[in-house]
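A note from the maintainers: we've had questions about how concatenated examples are separated. There is no special marker in the raw files; a new sequence line simply starts the next protein. For clarity in this README we add a label.
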Amino acid sequence: MAGMLGIGVSGLLAYQRSLQTVSHNVANANTEGYTRQRVELGTNIPEFAGGGYLGTGVSVRSVERVYDDFLVGRVQSYSSGTSHAQSFAEQVSRIDELLADPDVGLSPAMEGFFSELQSVANDPSSIAARQSFMSQAEILVDRYAYNNQRLEDLRSQNNKQVQAAVTEINGLATSIAALNRDISLAPGNSPPNDLLDRRDVLLQQLSEKVSISTVEQENGAMNVFIGKGLSLVRNFESNEVQLSRNEFDIRQFEASIDFGAGSVNEITDQISGGELGALFDFRDQVLNGTQNALGALAVGFADSFNAQHNLGQDLNGALGTDFFSVPGLEVRNSRANTGTATIAATLTDSSQLDGDEYQLSFSGGGYTLTNTSDGSTETFGGLPQTTSHGFSLDISAGALNNGDSFLIRPGRRGAQDLALSITAPDEVAAAAPVRTAIDALNNTGNATITPGVVNDTSNLPLGADIVMQYDGTDMNVISGPAPWNGVSFAYSDGATVTALAGLEFTISGTPAAGDEFRIENNTNGVGDNRNALLMSDLQNQSLMSNGTASYTDYYGGVVADIGVVANQAQLTQSAQEGLLEQAKNSRDALSGVNLDEEAANLLKFQQAYQAASQVIVASNNMFQSLLSALRG
């Protein structure tokens, strides 16, 4: 009877714990991160009773989570990927919308600029047309500045988000380390399930900020690593992720882990996944390149337009000057430099500019120029040096020490610093500075000469007219200033003449011996539109990307590249969200609380509890019967 009573009591206690666990499951059915628990029951050690072993009841071995490391690991991994994809897609979409916006994008402003320039070409003497063109030029400059400022706003926002993400990472790491201590020191043989759930929630939240890997220790603590195995949490201690300023640009954050005792590891390049990885990827792979490319277009456009404008003549008869102020090329010294040198980068060929950045390193008396985008290098023994990237390098001041380095960003300030150099409508050089003529009174042949094109104004305006005379075979300059006086060239009907330095023209037809042709200053050429037409035609020429793209093509390529990245980011986001949903469903199918199942368990354990109580009642009845028999 005593054994029967003990068995009944053991059952009563076991099913009481089971009912308590089921109730706990039901109560936490909607608690974030809660893992369904179940009581693990086991038979007690049997007793030998002569003829055999008799059972002694049941006991609660432990209360376990219904848990699968693999499924939880998948959720953490896909959480990191989804958070990265969502954040990256959101950031890229902002640039995509900016560049493609018909109201604030560059394309409409560029089209308006060349449209108004064509109006000047149609009526070069019109002050109203010139004023309208200058107004559109100001709009274009402002549009470059506006787009650049929007990108700077995104950079500022990116920095704030990086700071916020790092703060959250450090807070989560501290909380995980504290939970490690609580879990490790928890009394009893059963795991502290609710503490483990809380830690899993924190680990998932951490994985949404940055990609992590975990290793569980024998004491129950969870070590957490980021990057290439760098410890963020070890047992009961956490290391802090810190932000420092980039060695070249104080506006740009870099991440590192402080292990104490002066041991700091930079981890920016190692961070992947999660919101922080997305923020760094967006900055380094999209934002920097877009801003550089936009600036490179501004520099290339201003430089090539100036080159043609300088070959013209304004409404006052003066030679054309720079229409735009061409932005300088940015060079930043490393804060780790020990030398005093300052490096200057000078534009040499704007068609070679792109959105890349270059790091110049000095070592052993030599220089290495590395493209930070693709890793390609160019080496040279000294400065000054003209590179193959559209700029030259030279030491403008100071001296170099071994290990000194510099970051060259040819296009970074282009859109920001672009400005107009002229402001008056009459300064627009729409005319050509020279014109041609034939001696109509004395020429007996039928040859004609085109108005001419100017390629170099260094010897203009002309000190005297250039007079060419045909001798039956050759054209000879019989009078005129240096360097043209005395020049002779064979006549070829319809061929472009390039023998007169800086000037091009075509003589067609059959001249007679003694016929003369004249090149003279374009005095009072207010109705001349030749240079305006040449400037207008710049929009159709391939002046960017090493002579393979027009302004529109180049900008369209930047917009298209961003569009491709944005579209791919959206596809990646959708795919990652689908994978995360599947992983959560798989985890929840195993670990989630099913209220129907818990209701069935509640009924089952309630019946078992009642049955165990009846065993106790029966045992008591038998005991009372025995006592009555003994008293009788």
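[label: protein 2]
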Amino acid sequence: GKRGWLSDGVLRHIEALGLNDRVRLLDYVPSEDLPGLLGGSRLLVQPSLYEGFGLPLLEAMAAGVPVVASNAASLPEVAGDAAILVDPRDVDAWREALRKALTDEALRQELIRRGSRRADLFSWERCARETLTVLERVGGGR
């Protein structure tokens, strides 16, 4: 997505740590490119303080990518038990969560399994079906 208000500082830290060749901050990614991009990912990390919905979590889960996300805003509701949730301001907790998500293979597989189930709950097909049910109920079945 679009660069945020702390992007410049993040970019400086990435450079200072010598991680330019290992970390990429992407702008808009077309939806048809997401499966390939996510499929090559080891982990999705979303440390947001503010988030409208959290669609990237579900996109990663649907692609079989484990998620570590902030426990703020809408993210806990979207993630359910299918992600490691962390206080967005607790650096030590983030360090530990990322270490576990990258090194504990049993945990990774469990997050992938739960994530797949969680993503299924938010499919566009299901959304359309439930919306139609509500509209039929409100409209008296017409």
